[in-house]
Amino acid sequence: MAIQWFPGHMHRARKQIAELMPQIDLVIEVLDARLPYSSENPLIPELCAGKATLKLLNKADLADEAYTKEWLEHFNSQPNTRAMALTGLDKKQVKSITQFCHKLLPDRPAQKKAIRAMILGIPNVGKSTLINSLAGRMIAKAGNQPALTRHPQHIKIQGGIVLSDTPGMLWPKIHNVASGFRLAASGAVRDTALDYFEVAEYAANMLLQLYPQELQTRYKIEQLPERGEELIDLIGRKRGCLRPGGVVDIHKAAEILIHELRGGKMGKVTYETPQMKIDEEKALAELALAKEAEEKAKQEKNRPQRS
Ligand SMILES: Nc1nc2c(ncn2[C@@H]2O[C@H](COP(=O)(O)OP(=O)(O)OP(=O)(O)O)[C@@H](O)[C@H]2O)c(=O)[nH]1
Ligand SMILES: [Mg+2]
Known about the structure:
It is a single chain. The chain is of the alpha/beta class. The chain contains 11 helices and 8 strands. The chain starts with 7 loop residues before the first helix and ends in a 5-residue tail after the last helix. The site of guanosine-5'-triphosphate has 24 residues, from helix 5.
């Protein structure tokens, strides 16, 4: 089942962001460094209409450094955009954001008027934490739970910048099924809105493909299975998640895998690479074309025949 989570408060947030946008000089889009492609909100280009954008690849402490480097090159080659990777909990790293903001708006007269920047991003990606690190005090509510911030909030920070914190936002339809699973695995979707086993199965397959050694070390497995489903079963056995009769409690095992992945227990793990983005977008475009052709053929078939 595809992942979808776009509750009422996100609809409201979308409207509020659109209303505030004319007063904004700069957009700071916070991405998750582990999934920079899937955490890019497709509503943002339309909401921001050509404003200068700073892409922050946050939670870099949890991501694979080599892939983060590749992703930064990818984003920095886009027009009117700068990207940087950081750990929002690290106040020293966060301080460099203000310099980046000034670099993106070089024509703005320095001390005259504060830069008005809006922080946007998916739920639980670390927007409020960044604001708190920048402000040097707990000013925005932050915590490990998606949809904690419910209303936009404006905060003046040092360096001539006023920041708006906004509620985390997903989008009405996540077309790429794999992206939906990565978002869910990262913690961007309320747990009540997802099937843990399906998400864990996706994550297990992803780890088998990209991080087999880390899996072997973490779960002390000599011979890895081929399929995610078998891996979850094996983790369940290793961790004693057994129901009466020796049957593995796969939901418990799935929970262990997801929590340990989110908590960085397997080391620095990136869920997707720039090459995966290219391949998946190509496959999605082909699928859309095939659907369109099928639709056309159907219409042709149903068109009344002229005699
Ligand atoms: N490991 C790690 N955790 C982080 C980082 N930044 C934030 N977090 C954690 O991520 C969780 C979510 O942080 P928030 O700042 O509340 O996220 P948010 O984007 O404001 O979330 P919503 O308001 O729910 O959309 C918290 O538990 C933070 O401590 C980071 O760079 N690295
Ligand atoms: Mg928040």
